[in-house]
């Protein structure tokens, strides 16, 4: 059997076919953002002669080590490079038919990793199972991370931009719009889906004028509106320049600083800020040219009118970030955190819910950083488009990672990659496979039809009256306004 060759607008690329799915890896969607293009908006990729080999993933973006777990990791450490703007495409093999095959909906995955880690090539994001089971085209991508993707550089001038990582995502979506038909995809049925920083990226894309028209549906997993004030973002940029011995007047010298020196300076800056695992120094920021308004406010005003969304969180998100050796906050620190995260002058009505313990701190993060943000975003979009809410509750008592429904636990289920759980000592049984089929079915139904309803699982729209939430567990069920009393205090 010959390998599948696709003719794109930039040249031919040869993929591979395995078990009824074709895949093309390492496709450039922009020029390498190196040299003079560092800290600048992505540019269209160069064309190539001959047939490009699409057997291997492209390099991942420079980043510190990942500790997500054995399910995410591969057998070898991937190559890191600023030349990282590549994407991958999976497509189910078309059966021979008398009638022409209709273009399939496209699902574009935006990975998480706190805007400093991750790539589109880790094993849990392999799109083969989702493409085959969901009858969709799956695209995963890399985007610039950390100081290269999310330093507030626009104020320095000279063609530098802020939110470069988001602009990379938009460039990838433009590539999808222009090229995906050659892979069997429908450019008018594009669903973006992503988790954590990927979900937060999608919230920003919904608010960015330059992203309009590039996707028609969105799934936000454990991430909603999240930006930092441009004043703070500017301080972080100034701090990193200081670590490098530079200032704004010497911006041009940044183009010559070796990658590893910039990464080392970013690590030193994080240590100066306390070195907290969950701290995000590099993330989207308000910027007139790229992200002119905070995403929650933009969506509430109708910036993403007509784009249906699925949004949700995991029941125990915060337990991923806190462990037995984590420092315990004092009651005063907990009170301050609650006031800051909820934007309140007085949080005395909330403090009784969160004891001064590791468990209390984890619950604060679950409730305020993740759940509250998702509920508020759902409320903001519901007047302008259909919204469906979910919560992922499945867990495995006694397991070191899946002992609770922690941050990221749902990803292997949504991708149909639950067989990878065996790497973590989990016996993959019918309960696990059924839950994965339910999520793949809902996600792909949404991509096909704009609604996650399936024959197996009916899913009611979310609104401020019913607050219907599909709870994914060993027995999936629709729950109206779960944890109602807590929600009323928090939202």
TrEMBL record:
Its EC number is 3.1.1.-. Residues 3-477 form the Carboxylesterase type B domain. Gene3D superfamilies: alpha/beta hydrolase (3.40.50.1820). The keyword Disulfide bond applies. It is an enzyme of class 3 (hydrolase). Keywords: Disulfide bond, Hydrolase. Belongs to the type-B carboxylesterase/lipase family. This is Carboxylic ester hydrolase. It comes from Paenibacillus lacisoli.
């Amino acid at each position: 059997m010959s390998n599948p060759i696709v003719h794109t607008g930039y040249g031919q690329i040869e993929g591979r076919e395995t078990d009824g799915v074709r895949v093309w890896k390492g496709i450039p969607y922009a020029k390498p953002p190196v040299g003079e293009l560092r800290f600048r908006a992505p540019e269209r990729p160069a064309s190539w002669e001959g047939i490009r080999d699409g057997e291997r993933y492209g390099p991942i973006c420079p980043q510190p080590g990942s500790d997500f777990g054995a399910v995410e990791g591969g057998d070898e450490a991937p190559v890191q490079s600023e030349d990282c703007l590549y994407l991958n495409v999976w497509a189910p093999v078309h059966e021979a038919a008398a009638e022409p095959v209709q273009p399939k909906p496209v699902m574009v995955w935006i990975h998480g990793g706190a805007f400093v880690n991750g790539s589109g090539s880790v094993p849990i994001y392999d799109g083969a199972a989702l493409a085959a089971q969901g009858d969709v085209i799956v695209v995963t991508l890399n985007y610039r991370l950390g100081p290269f993707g999310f330093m507030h550089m626009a104020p320095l001038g000279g063609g530098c931009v802020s939110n470069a990582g988001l602009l990379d995502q938009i460039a990838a979506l433009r590539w999808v719009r222009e090229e995906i038909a050659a892979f069997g995809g429908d450019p008018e049925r594009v669903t973006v889906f992503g988790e954590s920083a990927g979900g937060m990226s999608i919230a920003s894309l919904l608010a960015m004028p330059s992203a309009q028209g590039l996707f028609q549906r969105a799934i936000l997993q454990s991430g909603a509106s999240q930006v930092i004030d441009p004043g703070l973002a500017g301080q972080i940029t100034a701090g990193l320049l200081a670590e490098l011995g530079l200032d704004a007047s010497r911006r041009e010298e940044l183009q010559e600083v070796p990658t590893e020196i910039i990464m080392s300076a970013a690590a030193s800056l994080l240590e100066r800020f306390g070195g907290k695992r969950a701290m995000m120094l590099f993330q989207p920021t308000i910027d007139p040219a790229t992200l002119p308004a905070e995403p929650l406010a933009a969506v509430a005003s109708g910036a993403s009118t007509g784009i249906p969304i699925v949004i949700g969180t995991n029941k125990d998100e915060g337990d991923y970030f806190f462990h037995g050796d984590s420092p315990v906050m004092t009651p005063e620190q907990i009170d301050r955190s609650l006031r800051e995260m909820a934007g309140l002058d007085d949080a005395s009505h909330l403090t009784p819910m969160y004891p001064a313990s590791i468990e209390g701190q984890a619950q604060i993060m679950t409730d305020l950083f993740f759940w509250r943000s998702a509920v508020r975003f759902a409320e903001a979009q519901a007047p302008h488009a259909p919204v469906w809410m979910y919560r992922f509750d499945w867990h495995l008592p006694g397991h070191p990672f899946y002992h609770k429904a922690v941050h990221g636990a749902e990803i292997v289920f949504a991708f149909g990659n639950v067989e990878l759980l065996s790497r973590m000592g989990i016996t993959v049984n019918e309960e696990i496979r059924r839950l994965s089929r339910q999520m793949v079915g809902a996600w792909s139904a949404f991509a096909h039809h704009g609604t996650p309803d399936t024959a197996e699982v009916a899913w009611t729209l979310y609104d401020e009256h019913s607050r219907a939430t599909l709870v994914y567990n060993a027995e999936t069920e629709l729950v109206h306004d779960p944890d109602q009393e807590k929600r009323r205090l928090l939202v």
